[in-house]
Structure to design on (306 residues):
C-alpha cells in the first residue's frame, strides 16, 4: 500500500503490474462502504494487460476520514464535503499526478458515478469508463418527481433527521455491526459466492476507525448531486456497463434504459445469478469482459500513437 497527500488528506492506493509496457492504465474505484481491497480478484488479473491501480476514496479504507461538512456548516481545513464532485476531483488528480498516463476508469456502485465525474475532468486522458452495477441514486431530489406524494411530503423531515449527527452515528454503529454486514452481503451476493472471512474483514476493518462514521454522515446527507445519466449526456468517452442480473438495489431495467437512450454507452453485459458486486461475486466472468475492453483500448491507443 502507498499513501499520497491530496489537499491535506492522505489517500491510500495500490498498484499491480507497474512495469507492464502499456500506453494506458486501469484505475479501480470502489463503492460505498468498501475499499481498494474489494478488487482482490480483479486487480492482479487485469494487471497482466496494463498497470492496474486501486484507490481508497476519502472517508473509506485507509484514506483519511475527515469530519463531514453538511448543509450550511462552515467550511474549514479539518472538514470535507463528501460528494461526487470532490471524490471525482480526488480520482482525476490521482490519475494526473500518480498514474501519469491515459486511463480506463472502472467503478462499482457510487464508484461508477465518481468515475463518470472524473472522466469529465480528465477529458482526453480518460479513454473509457466501465460502470459495474452503477448507483442509480433513487433517493436524489431530482428523482422525487417519480416518487409517491407521501415520499415527496416527508422528504424535508427525512433530511432533518439524517442531518442530526447523533442519529447518523448510531445508525452507522448498527450498520457496521458484523450481524448487519452479513445480512447485507446475503442481499448483495445472492449466489453466496466469495462471501468469506476475507470479505468480512475487508468491509469491517475500515469501519472500526474513529473517523468512519463521518463518511456515512456525509453520504446520507447527499440528496442533490450528480446522476449518472446527466454525466453521460453529450459525453464522447465510451462507456461500458456490467450489471448483476439479480442486483437488489440497482434494477437491471435501469441499465437497459440507459443502454437504449444514452449514445456514449457502447455495451451492456449482464452477469447471470449475481447481485450488486459482480466483480467480486463472479470475478472470472467480469475479468474476461474487462480484459477485452482493455485489449481493445490498448490497440486503439497504439494505433493513435503510430
Amino acid at each position: 500500500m502507498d499513501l499520497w497527500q491530496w489537499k491535506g488528506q492522505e489517500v491510500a492506493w495500490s498498484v499491480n503490474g507497474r512495469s507492464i509496457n502499456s500506453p494506458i492504465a486501469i484505475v479501480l474505484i470502489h463503492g460505498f462502504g468498501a475499499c481498494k481491497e474489494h478488487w482482490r480478484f480483479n486487480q492482479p488479473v487485469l494487471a497482466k494487460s496494463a498497470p492496474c491501480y486501486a484507490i481508497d476514496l476519502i472517508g473509506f479504507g485507509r484514506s483519511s476520514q475527515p469530519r463531514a461538512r453538511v448543509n450550511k456548516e462552515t467550511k474549514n481545513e479539518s472538514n470535507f464535503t463528501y460528494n461526487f464532485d470532490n471524490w471525482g476531483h480526488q480520482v482525476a488528480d490521482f490519475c494526473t499526478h500518480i498514474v501519469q498516463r491515459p486511463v480506463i476508469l472502472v467503478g462499482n456502485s457510487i464508484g461508477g458515478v465518481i468515475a463518470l465525474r472524473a472522466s469529465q475532468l480528465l477529458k482526453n486522458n480518460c479513454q473509457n469508463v466501465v460502470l459495474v452495477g452503477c448507483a442509480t441514486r433513487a433517493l436524489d431530489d431530482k428523482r422525487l418527481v417519480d416518487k409517491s406524494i407521501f415520499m415527496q411530503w416527508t422528504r424535508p423531515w427525512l433530511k432533518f433527521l439524517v442531518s442530526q449527527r447523533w442519529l447518523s452515528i448510531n445508525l452507522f454503529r448498527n450498520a457496521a455491526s458484523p450481524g448487519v454486514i452479513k445480512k447485507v452481503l446475503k442481499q448483495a451476493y445472492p449466489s453466496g459466492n466469495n462471501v468469506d472471512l476475507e470479505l468480512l474483514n475487508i468491509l469491517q476493518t475500515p469501519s472500526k476507525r474513529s473517523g468512519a462514521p463521518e463518511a456515512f454522515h456525509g453520504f446520507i446527507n447527499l440528496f442533490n448531486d450528480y446522476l449518472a445519466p446527466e454525466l453521460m449526456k453529450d459525453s464522447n468517452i465510451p462507456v461500458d456497463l456490467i450489471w448483476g442480473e439479480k442486483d437488489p438495489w440497482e434494477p437491471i431495467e435501469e441499465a437497459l434504459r440507459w443502454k437504449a437512450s444514452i449514445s456514449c454507452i457502447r455495451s451492456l453485459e449482464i452477469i447471470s445469478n449475481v447481485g450488486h458486486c459482480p466483480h467480486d461475486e463472479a470475478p472470472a466472468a467480469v475479468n474476461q469482459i474487462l480484459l477485452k475492453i482493455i485489449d481493445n483500448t490498448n490497440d486503439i491507443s497504439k494505433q493513435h500513437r503510430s
Q: What stands out?
A: The beta strands are 2-6, 9-16, 25-29, 52-55, 67-68, 79-80, 103-108, 126-132, 239-244, 265-271. Residues 283-305 form the longest helix (23 residues).
